[in-house]
Amino acid sequence: MADWNRGHGAVDDMLDVENQFLAENLASKVSMLKSLAYDIDKETEDQNIYLDGMDSNFLSATGLLTGSVKRLSTMVRSSRDNRKILCYVSVGLVMVFFLLYYMVSRLQS
Q1: Between 20 and 30 A from 83 (CA), which of 10, 38, 75, 101?
Q2: The pTM is what?
Q3: CB-CB neighbours of 52 under 10 Å
Q4: 78 phi-psi bin (left φ>0, alpha ψ -120 to 50, beta other)
Q5: Among 12-16, 27-31, 48-52, 72-76, which range has the highest average pLDDT?
């Protein structure tokens, strides 16, 4: 009977060594996942800061466009002399748009 218990001791030692190896392997994987989660959190915070900045930029652009539309509406409602100016401004804006489109397309190719 004593020999039989000694055999179990060797198996127990072998299982203990294997458990230690698996525990260390698991600990390294958990550490790697923790590092990955921290990197994702940091990237998320950076993206939120970036999006908040874009939000304020869009709000300022919205304010500028609203003011321009109000001025344009006022000009449309005024007398016929201003309608001629409105036509020139509209044609000028279309030409500027096409000029910018042409310049951007030339820079990309």
Answers
A1: 101
A2: 0.47
A3: 10
A4: beta
A5: 27-31
